[in-house]
Write a structure and sequence with these properties.
alpha+beta, BirA Bifunctional Protein, domain 2, 2 domains, 9 strands
Amino acid sequence: MSLKDKLEVLKNETSKKIQAAADLATLNQIRVETLGKKGPITEVLRGMKDLSAEERPKVGAFANEIRDYLTAAVETKKTELEQAVMDKALAEEAIDVTLPGRQVPVGGRHVLTQILEEIEDIFVGMGYQVIEGNEVESDHYNFERMNLPKDHPARDMQDTFYISEETLIRTHTSPVQARVMEKHDFSKGPLRMISPGKVFRRDTDDATHSHQFHQIEGLVVDKNVTMADLKGTLEVMMQKMFGADRKIRLRPSYFPFTEPSVEVDVSCFKCGGAGCNVCKYTGWIEILGAGMVHPDVLSMSGIDPEEYSGFAFGIGPDRVAMLRYGVNDIRSFYQNDVRFLSQFKGE
């Protein structure tokens, strides 16, 4: 049998195999076996050396013609098989457009973020600046500038995480106030600011304590600032947060950075002061600490306490959220349970 006859037989047999291929893997195997470097067409071309000079170009041209024909047949069959695969997938994965739609879950701001922003809006409305600071602070600004020198016993109440002997993670946002006080130009007006952010203390985690929580501290420094200004400011804030009929009361307390210092209670927003489980049947809920800025704190910031005075307060948004929504475990805010957090999506 001549080479030309062999090529003709190869063409017919391979064409039948290509048409009979049931899947892409079988088709690819046929292509490799027939048209590959070790396939029969290549072997025929290698045998051309034994042909005469007159026959060689004719057989070579015919071999190329057969190869092109089979290559085209493979591509055509490949297209058919790919289309069949797609048609099957579409049939099996058909979408029933008559089914009701599925609601896509939409996230929202964390409940503590909502409380923080609400408090910020209240104080911005009263002309306060919102100033944030670093969570990693120096011992000097975190304690000493707040009238808490080294070995002061009150430091035990704010024991924290130390990075080095003089560097720590802040226990309150007061260092922001100290840094702002030393730079403030009173010729341009009084200092009115709040400093929100996360703070850290070495507390044992339980239902009412966490080693990490949020705090918003406020500070006003100007001439002739009095305790009456402090009370009026806090009363406005409580009425905005808990209702227009809320009242506050001040009880003597102690903080190293204020003198005099007070604990601030708000009349119970659940029972209106009659007594209930929220207020422990007293009619009042302890909400924050405050006081007049200690003269030594002013002096350390280069402010003359004989000419200027001020008040400061600190409120915990975590506690506000617990009271407002009846949450009895502060850890719930930090456990990322979507079932819990989705209750507070807000507006």
